[in-house]
Amino acid sequence: MLDDFFSRAIIGGIGVALVAGPLGCFIVWRRLAYFGDTLSHSALLGVALALLFEVNVTLAVFLVSVFVAFALLLLQRQATLSSDTLLGLLAHSALAIGLVVLAFMTWVRVDLMGFLFGDILATTKIDLGLIWFGGISVLGVLSIIWRELFAATVSLEVATAEGMKPERANAIFMILMAVVIAISMKIVGVLLITALLIIPAATARSFSRSPEQMAIIAVVFGITAVCFGLLGSLEWDTPAGPSIVVAALGLFISSFLPKVLSRKTKI
After folding, report:
1. In 3D, which of 164, 135, 130 has the Cα closest to residue 150?
2. What is the DSSP string of 36-87?
3. Tens-digit pLDDT profile for the chain (267 aa)?
4. Within 13 Å and on the Cβ side, how many CA atoms surround 190?
5. How far is C-alpha 230 from the geometric centre of its chain's CA atoms?
């Protein structure tokens, strides 16, 4: 029989996978992998500020992620630099500032590895409530803006011409990303959350025929990666967060095997 801590880890991981799948699809469609990295790196600055001002860590990470996302929008409109340059600037600056602030707080003992790579096995019942409540809320909002957001993904001009409000949908999408990063930080950490968003969605792309189908399949692959990763972590005593990402990578590589084998057969 599985220990309580392991059961909580499974339930928490599934909760994150449920919401990471659909959002990850938009990241893949829009080629926003670096944007996800930028928000996740900024989470460490949120952690540092939370400890400095003694506020809730999840709330601080959410607020900092939102600030960085809208700072990017503002800079894109006013700066002459390319988007990837701005993303790199914001990502590494936020990460560096967070590490420097933590270094100055010598009176606080910080589990930096836990924040960077997650500590899913330490998930509490309160964490589970936050993950599932936040995740269901994100999915609810995403279902409302799905049509506008997908239309803006295909063509911003066409979406505007059809009377939609793609700019509003894009802003909401950024806020949803900030929520997911804030609630997922404890599961896989700030350095690996982007992988959990991208890899299942990228794997699902080969098996889907519609956007909605891809989102559902991405959720299935995400849940599978969580289960296999945690079981592997338990069996071989490896870090849980990285093990989940490795399991997701294994599923991604496996998805290409039928194609490779079929090509060899034809040759």
Report:
1. 164
2. HHHHHHHHHHHHHHHHHHT--HHHHHHHHHHHHHHHHHHHHHH--S-HHHHH
3. 345 888 899 999 999 999 999 999 999 998 888 888 888 888 889 999 998 888 998 899 999 999 998 888 888 777 677 777 888 888 889 889 988 988 888 877 777 777 778 888 888 888 899 999 999 999 999 999 999 999 888 887 777 777 777 888 888 999 999 999 998 887 888 878 889 999 999 999 989 999 999 999 999 999 999 999 999 998 999 988 899 999 999 999 998 777 666 666 655
4. 30
5. 18
- Please give the model's pTM, rounded to 2 decimal places: 0.89
- Please give the single-letter amino acid code of residue 67: F
Question: Would you list the domain boundaries of the chain?
Answer: 4-190
Cα–Cα nearest to 51, from 99, 90, 95: 99
Give CATH superfamily name and number for 4-190. Answer: ABC transporter involved in vitamin B12 uptake, BtuC (1.10.3470.10)
